[in-house]
Structures are given as structure tokens and as C-alpha cells.
Amino acid sequence: MENLDVLVLRTLHDWRQAGRRALLATVVRTWGSSPRPVGSIMALAEDGAVVGSVSGGCIEDDLIYRYTRAYAGQGEAKAIPSGPPEFVKYGVTADEAHRFGLPCGGTLELLLEYDPDPAALAELVRRLEAGELVRRTVRLADGQVTLETALTPSELALDEARMANTFGPEYRMLLIGAGQLAEYLATMALFSGFAVTVCDPREEYRGGFHVPGATLVSDMPDDVVRAFRPDRRSCVVALTHDPKLDDLALLEALGTEAFYVGAIGSRRNNDARRRRMIEHFGQTEASLARLRGPIGIYIGSKTPPEIAVSVMAEILAVKNGVPLPRDMDVAEAKNQRQIAASDDPVACALPQP
């Protein structure tokens, strides 16, 4: 599943290129609780077709109703929506918050851009598909758009004259190992909007891996990490339990800006991994501080799909900058419950976060 922003922008471009009237809605402010964060976008065509989201659905329904009637010359607003961008606010009163499904006290404000220029949309989509981080600035007086390469991701910026929203390439996940757990984790990552690459030089594992949309490669993992060039929108997860495959790949990943680097395994296996890296690869506790393991959050998971849920939840929390309570850490939770660390080979082959 591709990046949602790219999907919205590409669909909007296709509508406009085909001559259809359409608008682009961006969440620019929120107060209190809000279903979607600032910077979220959706596109709405004149016939009511919609892609993307700015709420849980009720605001989308209201926009569809209002603007399809306006495009059709019906209702209070008979003129076709056009002109410079406009602001619209939802959830100002308790009644509106209830009507539009906003949490108690929640309010959000949208900027609506009418009939965005298809040429500018095409250029933005092209640059995003090429892996660029792009800052899109809209002049509020007339809707003129400028695009510039951004060096770092940044929050939406809004002042009296302009709105600037930064769009980036997809988040990426590199999985080391193509076993059953990798299939579940790759599937979850894909529907969470990640581009997924799975690396396993072992033919017997590659032959059994079937996840449409994931890229499967056979080179040695450390070489794949170097070629993958993890950035701050990337995560690297080792799943093989084989030091010959995991260790060097993890060391390569720790030298990058990847927002998450971790390995599956029991507490005992993870302690042994750290000792190997310190004794044989010149690492220190400080240099290994970013290495996560045992990965996942503690939910008492026993099966591969449950373990994948645990791991994906931790990855998304780190991606979204959400600190997790210490008692959700796998090692901490098991220590508190006095669960014995197992060195049984079968248990090590399928760890239980």
C-alpha cells in the first residue's frame, strides 16, 4: 500500500488533468482532541469522489454534501466553488462536535484549495515518487503554489500569508529474514503505509515467502543495509536469530539515521548479542544504546501474528514519537512477572514478546 499523501495527490492530479473540478482540504489547526493530525489531506471531486481523510468520516460527509450541491448549483451556495483558498472550521460548538463525531471539546480547521493546478500537482508527485522531501507552500491571497526541496521533515506552518506543508517519501521497513513472522510483520507494515523490503540469502526461506507488495532480495543482509541507505524515515528489524545474518546488518543500521533498529529474540539471546558486539566488534554500551531488543511491547503474545502486532505497535509508537511506559517493555515486563529467561532452542526460534 503506497503512501497515503502520494495517493491523494496523484488522484487529485488525475482528476484535474481530466478536466474535473476538485478541491484539496488540509487540516491546518486543531484544538483539543482531533481524529486526524495537522497536515492531513483529502481530495474531493465535483461528483463526490473522495480520497484521503481529515476526520473519522462525518466531516468528509458534510464536505461531500455541501460541495457536490454547490458544484451542481443547488442549495444555499449556487456558485461553483472557486477563487483563493478558504478556511472552514468544524466543532466550534458542543452540538457541532457531536454532529461531526469530534471528541468532546475537539475543533479542527481546514484550508480548502479550489481546482489546484494540475502541472504543479504533477511536479509534486514526480518528486515524491523520486524519494524527495518536498515543502509545498500555498499563498493564501491567490492559491499560488511553490515547491522546494526540504532538508528535514517539519510540521505544517501557517501564518497570515502562507501555508507550508512538507510531504515526504514513504516510510520504509527492512526486514532481515523471510520466515513466518516476517510475513505477518510485512503485511502489517504495508497496510500501515510502509514500503517493505525483505532480505534473506537462504533460499529455503525465500521460497516460502509470499507477501504481495513486499520486495524480496537475496543478498547478504549487511550489503543490503548499505544499499538500502536507511534514513530517518526507515526502520531495520532482524528476525533470523542467526548471528551471521543479523549482527553485521544491525551494526550497519546503527550507523545510519534509521528511527528504529531492533532484533527479535529472548532476553538471553539479546544479552548474548550485545556481548558479541562489544567483545568482537568494538562496540560499547553507548554505541548500542539505540539497538532495541527484545523488540515489541509486552502483550503476552504467543503466536507469530500476535508477536507481529507487538512489534508493529512499538515501531509505530517510535515513529510517532510516543514514549511507551516502562512496564510495556518486554524485558521489564517479564522480569516483573518473574518469567524465566529460556534458552530452549524451540522457544528461541519463536520468541514471545
Automatic annotation (TrEMBL):
InterPro entries referenced in this protein's UniProt entry, alphabetically: MoCofactor_Util/Proc, XdhC_CoxI, XdhC_Rossmann_dom
Superkingdom as given in the UniProt entry: Bacteria
Protein name: Xanthine dehydrogenase accessory factor
A Pfam family this chain is assigned to: XdhC_C
Domain XdhC Rossmann, chain residue ranges per copy: 173-315
Ranges of residues in domain XdhC- CoxI: 15-72
